[in-house]
Amino acid sequence: MKNLIRVLVLVALVVVGYIIIDSIITKSDKTKMPELASASAEYGALAEVDLEEKQYSVHKETLTSIDAIDKEVNGQIEADIKALTDAAVAAEPSADEPKAAYINAIDTYKVNDRIVSVRVTSMTRKPTMTTFDKTVNVYNYDISTGKKVTLDEIFNADVKSAIPGYSEKYLLGKTKIEFYTGDKTSSATYNSVKSFLKSDLLTKDNLEVSQSEYNLILTGEAGTPEKKTEAKTDTADTTATSEEGASDTETASAKTTESKNPPQSGDKMVAFTFDDGPHKTNTDKILDILKKYGVHATFFMQGVNASYYPDVVKRIYEEGNELGNHTWDHKNLKNLSEAEIRAEIDDAADVIEEAAGARPMVVRPPYGGYNDTVKAVVQEPLIRWSVDSEDWDSRDPDVIVPHVLEDVEDGDIILFHDVHETTTPAIERLVPELQKQGYQIVTVSELIAAKGFDINSQDLWFHAKP
User: Fold this and answer.
1) pTM value?
2) Burial degree of 225 (CB within 10 A; 0-12, 13-18, 19+)
3) Looking at residue 264, what is its pLDDT?
4) pLDDT below 50 — which residues of the chain?
5) Cα dihedral 283/284/287/291 (nearest 10)
6) Closest residue by Cα to residue 263 from 410, 446, 448, 452
7) What is the CB-side half-sphere exposure of residue 82 using CA atoms within 13 A?
8) Nearest to 387 by CA among 465, 290, 275, 463
9) Can you tell me the distance from the alpha carbon of 449 to that of 381, in angstroms, rounded to the nearest whole number?
10) How far apart (Å, rounded) are the C-alpha atoms in residues 2 and 259?
11) How far apart are CA 339 and CA 355, in angstroms?
12) E strands of 174-309, at which residues?
């Protein structure tokens, strides 16, 4: 009897100990701050401050440079922190809920002797939430005056004259120029125009202007188009209706099916996805790598770029890769009407189908942005991602490769961009390394099917994990 009591006491102690340890670990996981560090300090200096209160944790960097610049940059940081901490105090989280949290990092880039760029990356966990939201604001200044440099000032009269209906508002909303001004952004990142600004203001020689769509494409980034379509075509013009057209489509489809080895559900696998292309040279190089290692990927293409490079679109499909739709010209679908959303999707699908002989059946919304309206209008499955390679940010294979390898898991959908030259050497290193680790690299649809899901069973996918 005494032995039984001893055993029961010992079991009770083990259980209590496990509960205490699990509680500590869980609380630690919930309250753990993400790692976020500045990568560039080409201008000014930074000050760091930590605040730890019952309702929130804050680690902030602030800028020390010119008063006029500091006032705006630091003022926005303080406003963001105040909004969070006020909400945290009002919410009064319980002891078992994670505290609200804020952490930021400031990177400064000296473009030339006159222009500097300040990038503020912030991670915010709102009260009662367990995940962090990431935001990036970039500010560009003329340090000789301390005043903000606007897009309107970046473009000289010669360039403006080449752009019908030119205005800064137009540039922010319509063009392919990648540039931030404060919290209002154009389509991507400051780094895309940084190399041009180093020499001088942009000129017409740096740009290729599509008069039909009024898009500006940076030479060396999206590539100078070799072939253009005059305008978006109607569905009736791009859909094969004759027996000959139908035969071509069926042949291309059969060719794709024969070239693939369907993955098995028990295998470790991930889907590689590429956004924003096709690119006139980078996409072909990536296709060479995929073919070399016998793997396939999904290419989420912009319709406007597909119209420039139909041969690349055709090659993507014929070599067993999946066609993806990334809208006509990368507008944020959340800001559009239902008719505009449908036009963005259909116009891109039409030109991709015209080039490849098959219609893309998956859609990735620009910026990953969606709302109830987008989900209702877009009938195709919406594909986001679970691993962001951040190739758009670092532009460095030595950063991209370890970042992906550290985060990747079975069932992940990985985001890349084939418009960046630095992504290609990263893919050359990642494919054999992941294969060495036992992963199959497949398309999004293959991944979802192999993991036992019906791709049409839900309207939004981040991964193919249980």
Assistant:
1) 0.52
2) middle
3) 55
4) 19-30, 164-260
5) -170
6) 446
7) 6
8) 463
9) 13
10) 71
11) 24
12) 180-181, 184-185, 207-210, 215-218, 268-275, 298-301
Question: Is-cis flag, bond preceding 278, omega within 30?
Answer: yes
Dihedral Cα 217, 218, 223, 225, nearest 10 deg: 40
Packed helices 338-356 and 310-318: angle between N→C axes, nearest 10 degrees:
70
Task: Single out the residue of 316, 313, 297, 315 nearest to residue 305, CA to CA.
Answer: 313
The CA-atom distances, in angstroms, between 178 and each of 96, 126, 269, 303, 381 are 43, 30, 33, 18, 28
pLDDT in tens, 97-153: 788 899 998 888 776 677 777 878 888 888 878 777 777 677 778 888 888 776 556
Distance in angstroms (rounded) separating the CA atoms of residues 213 and 231: 7
Cβ(210)–Cβ(228) below 8 Å: yes
Q: What is the pLDDT of residue 120?
A: 83
SS3 165: coil
CB atoms within 10 A of CB 19: 10
What is the rounded CA–CA span in Å between residue 202 and residue 196? 6
Contacts 24+ apart (CB under 8 A), 337-346: 338/373, 338/376, 338/377, 341/373, 341/374, 341/377, 341/378, 342/377, 345/377, 345/378, 345/380, 346/235
Residue 385 is which amino acid? Answer: W
Query: How far, in Å, CA of 335 to CA of 50, rounded?
Result: 37
Q: What ranges in 92-211 are assigned the alpha helix state H? A: 151-154, 157-160, 168-174, 191-199
Task: Please write the tens of the pLDDT for every residue from 433-455.
Answer: 999 999 999 999 999 999 989 88
Q: What is the pLDDT of residue 3?
A: 62
Active-site annotation, residues: 275, 417
For the chain, what is the total number of helices (H) and then of strands (E)?
17, 19
Tokens of 404: 């992906």
Residues in CB range of 140: below 8 A, 6 or more apart: 111, 115, 116, 117, 118, 148, 149, 179, 180, 181, 190
Instruction: Match 């730890």 to its residue by tokens.
Output: 52
Cβ atoms of 443 and 426 closer than 8 Å? no
Q: At what angle do helices 397-407 and 423-436 cross, to 10 degrees?
A: 30
- Amino acid at residue number 258: E
Instruction: Identify the three-state secondary structure at position 301.
Output: strand
Contact assessment for residue 151 and residue 179, using Cβ atoms and an 8 Å cutoff: yes
Residue whose token pair is 């990431």: 134
SS3 167: coil
**Measuring CA to CA, how many Å separate 225 from each of 209, 284, 287?**
10, 15, 19
Give the burial class of 253: count Cβ atoms within 10 A of its Cβ; 0-12 exposed, 13-18 middle, 19 or more buried. Answer: middle
- Two structure tokens written together for 419: 């418009």
